[in-house]
Specification:
Largest sheet: 8 strands, mixed
Strand content: 15-25%
Helix content: 40-55%
Bound molecules: ligand BES, zinc ion
Oligomer: single chain
Length: about 850
């Protein structure tokens, strides 16, 4: 065994240290002899030294491998096992490296490399998992073609590319497209396929398959349709065609992430591909459609053009998230998708950017790359591309993208390459814009206005608070989409993009008959925090009149936050004007139901905590909870007489169809049901629960009942009905904790960790319980500290099983410095306890130290 020494001083990797590998990899041939505890992997790799290499060290990554033999050009050689891999003396000319190693997939609970899930073999190689399969230069800038032979008695044995032969006990595959090792995949097991096909725009027939465990065949149809829509969309919008004769998707139950874009063989967490009306909610369907698109889109943005090194991760992830968002906006509703994304950005990325884990979209150092698959790299990475597109315009955007695909196909690229295509396509200098990639932190933009003699002036001042390692920030390019409304609600200036480039800057609008009402940061044109003194009546005016749907929602959201903040800070009663505005909106059948549902969904409690923190207050989770309860109760009472009628009017009749239209209506209906349940003792929800023929309505009814502490019977019935369905059971676990009152949240979660169906080995189940605990704001932050303690204990227990998932979930503590000194002391003690754990993984060690040291 060649294991890195546990708790060895952690090594830090730096962007500035990048050096190309000294060898070309001409081809890779792998043979797997599958066996649960002793799989043998034989590799035959042709290396050619690069003439111009500055470093000829022959180092291959390798971890948790038993080396059986190594040969060069057929002659046995002795390799030196060193930390993280091996070194060997090699010829100065092209040579064939052969190695045989043994690995133990059944013991691999970290779910990186080759592992087993329900008796099925599968792999996860991104980012650095291939080195747990064999010795190899496991870095994304080393690209090669792969030929794979799988020997074993599994009925289905898959790898990347096209099948080239199969017989009793073996199968061979060849992938003609050079790829980095992180895109390698192998799957073998007792699987059944849901087939499909797609003809590309140039007339090539592509065979499509979704492979699942027997019993899940009935949950593939939606995913297959999503795949075909994605293939068509990428042709129509980006001109990009699929490049193999076969595209396989496999569903696995044990998976650290959502899904993975391995060339021609995408592997999905079963929660992100399996769907049926009876077992999946509207939200599940939307997510599945998006993630299938995302992984498919990586075929060009990630696979054909990949990353030079892992610091460039947002090159593929930010761009592919941006592309999947465009796709969802086209398939569903553009404003609804934008609102959902901004809610998610504020919930996940803003706290990261404002806390101890803050880092730029392109980080410059890391210890464990798995810790940088973050909201900043993904979501902010996508926002940066959205700003770029807005600045250069749509035509220039697609011109630059065409140039990107033309110039860089088959290469491993950097953010510099990416920005250069925009510079070359548009003639624009992007050096200041590039700061978005290197500076962390969310800019604050303060807006003031002035009106005199028909001239209206908007003045913007930008500043970004310090982040770890970056005390000073330079002003960035910020595209501000602005429109102006007249006091009677007409738009007097259509949307215009103002380009902020300085710390303080003014823009004037001439010839206005009266002082306009500004609609600023339309469509959320930049990921910033806008600070502007305004009145609630102006917000209500924009909620009613803004022509930009995003800003209409934003006005309502800002108003809701003001009302809730006033309730928390001054014990104010819920603002009557706001309740009236909501009532008017909920009754307005002219408005899109999905939009109404969003406006009726109050800001989350952690969002209120975040807002209080941004304004210099210490959030009190219990008070925030109480205000939320009071507010919702008051709203329910205000609507009391109309709720039954509204419920009836928004109920969707007929067979369940998981489209955007139906989903929007059901979202509004569920929102109304939850209000109604506060008043009618749960009668209507119990009826809906009993009659529901789809999970969306069954789940909404159960959630409403449980929140009102009236769902005991239904929760029991739900368990009886669904105990054999892993994905539905995840919902059951999570919902009990999400609905628990603050003082019982930790106890509820603890009890569920003792449930026979709880497991440390299944990331979905662990996340269902511990993620719901961390997501129940008032429960997690309950003054007793029980929430913190329970999470810490479980993270410590999980770390030796699955470091990657442990480290990701540690981020639940990242906001700790916002809270009062007692809570800070409690969290600090838990973080220190985690850090003191023997043999703590490098992943968790890095996350916890970063949180403690800032
Ligand atoms: N490449 C990632 C999957 C991945 C992430 C593998 C981290 C290894 C380590 C994949 O393309 C991805 O981004 N998946 C997301 C979902 C997507 C819709 C943003 C995920 O898994 O959450
Ligand atoms: Zn991705």
């Amino acid at each position: 065994m060649n294991d890195a020494a546990p708790n060895a001083a952690p090594q830090t990797f730096y962007l500035k240290d990048y050096k190309p590998f000294g060898y070309e990899v001409e081809s890779v041939k792998l043979t797997f002899q599958l066996s649960p505890n002793a799989t043998k992997v034989h590799s035959a790799i042709r290396f050619t030294p690069k003439a111009d290499a500055e470093d000829n060290r022959f180092f291959l990554h390798g971890e948790q491998l038993s080396l059986i033999s190594a040969k060069i050009d057929g002659t046995p050689v002795t390799a030196r096992l060193v930390e993280g891999g091996l070194e060997c003396d090699v010829p100065r000319t092209s040579f064939l490296w052969e190695a045989e190693v043994e690995i133990d997939p059944a013991a691999n609970t970290a779910l990186e490399g080759l592992y087993m899930s329900n008796g099925m073999y599968c792999t996860q190689c991104e980012a650095e998992g291939f080195r747990k399969i064999t010795y190899y230069p496991d870095r994304p800038d080393v690209m090669s073609t792969f030929t794979v032979r799988i020997e074993g008695d599994e009925p289905v044995m898959l790898s990347n590319g096209n099948p080239t032969g199969a017989g009793e006990g073996w199968a061979e595959w060849h992938d003609p497209w050079p790829k980095p090792a992180y895109l390698f995949a192998l799957v073998a097991g007792d699987l059944v396929n849901h087939p499909g096909s797609f003809t590309t725009k140039s007339g090539k027939d592509v065979e499509l398959n979704i492979w699942v465990r027997p019993g899940d065949e009935g949950k593939c149809a939606f995913g297959m349709e999503a795949l075909k829509k994605s293939m068509k969309w990428d042709e129509d919008v980006y001109g990009l065609e699929y490049d193999l004769d076969l595209f396989n998707i496999v569903a696995v139950d044990d998976f650290n992430m959502g899904a993975m874009e391995n060339k021609g063989l995408n592997i999905f967490n079963s929660s992100c591909v399996l769907a049926s009306p009876e077992t999946s909610t509207d939200a599940n369907f939307e997510r599945i459609e998006a993630i299938i698109a995302h992984e498919y889109f990586h075929n060009w943005t990630g696979n054909r053009i990949t990353c030079r090194d892992w610091f460039q991760l947002c090159l593929k992830e930010g761009l592919t998230v941006f592309r999947d968002a465009q796709f969802t906006a086209d398939m569903r509703s553009e404003p609804v998708k934008r609102i959902e994304d901004v809610i998610a950005l504020r919930a996940r990325q803003f706290p990261e950017d404002g806390g101890p884990l803050a880092h730029p979209p392109r980080p410059e150092e890391f210890q464990e790359i798995n810790n940088f698959y973050t909201a900043t790299v993904y979501e902010k990475g996508a926002e940066v591309i959205g700003m770029l597109k807005r600045l250069v315009g749509d035509d220039n955007y697609y011109k630059a993208l065409n140039l990107y695909f033309e110039r860089h196909d088959g290469q491993a690229c950097t953010i510099e390459d990416w920005l250069k295509v925009f510079e070359d396509a548009t003639g624009r200098d992007l050096s200041q814009f590039k700061l978005w990639y290197s500076q962390a932190g969310t800019p604050r933009v303060k807006v003031t206005e002035d009106y005199a003699d028909g001239t209206y002036t908007l003045t913007f001042e930008q500043s970004t608070p310090p982040t770890p390692g970056q005390p000073e920030k330079a002003p960035r390019v910020i595209p501000m989409a602005v429109g102006l409304l007249s006091p009677n609600g007409d738009e007097v200036r259509a949307t215009e993009v103002l380009e902020l480039t300085e710390a303080k800057q003014s823009f004037t609008f001439e010839g206005l008959a009266s002082k306009p009402v500004p609609s600023i940061l339309r469509e959320f044109s930049a990921p910033v925090i806008l600070e502007r003194e305004t009145t609630n009546s102006e917000r209500a005016f924009l909620l009613a009149h803004d022509t930009d749907p995003f800003n209409r929602w934003e006005a309502g959201n800002a108003l809701a936050k003001e009302v809730r903040v006033a309730m928390v800070l001054d014990g104010a009663a819920p603002d009557a004007a706001y309740l009236d505005a909501l009532e008017k909106l909920v009754r307005d059948d002219e408005q899109d139901p999905a939009f109404r549902a969003l406006v009726l969904s109050p800001p989350s409690q952690s969002d209120i905590a975040q807002t209080l923190h941004e304004r210099g207050h210490t959030p009190d989770p219990q008070k925030i909870y109480d205000a939320a309860e009071t507010f919702t109760q008051t709203l329910a009472q205000q609507l009391e007489t109309s709720l039954p009628r509204l419920y009836a009017a928004t109920t969707v009749e007929g067979p369940y169809v998981p489209d955007a239209d139906g989903a929007g209506k059901r979202a509004l209906n569920s929102r109304i049901l939850s209000l109604l349940t506060r008043l009618d003792g749960g009668e209507q929800a119990a009826r809906q629960y009993a009659s529901a023929d789809n999970m969306t309505q069954q789940y909404a009814a159960l959630a409403a009942l449980m929140k009102a502490e009236k769902g005991e019977t239904q929760s029991q019935a739900f368990f009886e009905q669904w105990q054999d369905d892993r994905l539905v059971m995840d919902k059951w676990f999570a919902l009990q904790i999400a609905c628990a009152a603050p003082e019982t949240t930790a106890a509820t979660a603890k009890e569920l960790t003792q449930h026979p169906l709880f497991s440390m080995k299944n990331p979905n189940r662990f996340r269902a319980v511990m993620g719901a605990l961390a997501g129940n704001h008032a429960g997690f932050h309950h003054a007793s500290g029980a929430g913190y303690q329970l999470l810490a204990e479980n993270l410590i227990a999980l770390d030796s099983v699955n470091p990657q998932t442990t480290a990701r979930m540690c981020a639940a503590f990242q906001t700790w410095k916002r809270y009062d000194s007692k809570r800070q002391a409690q969290i600090q003690a838990e973080l220190e306890r985690i850090l003191a754990t023997r043999d703590l993984s490098r992943d968790t060690h890095e996350m916890v130290s970063r949180m403690l040291s800032a």
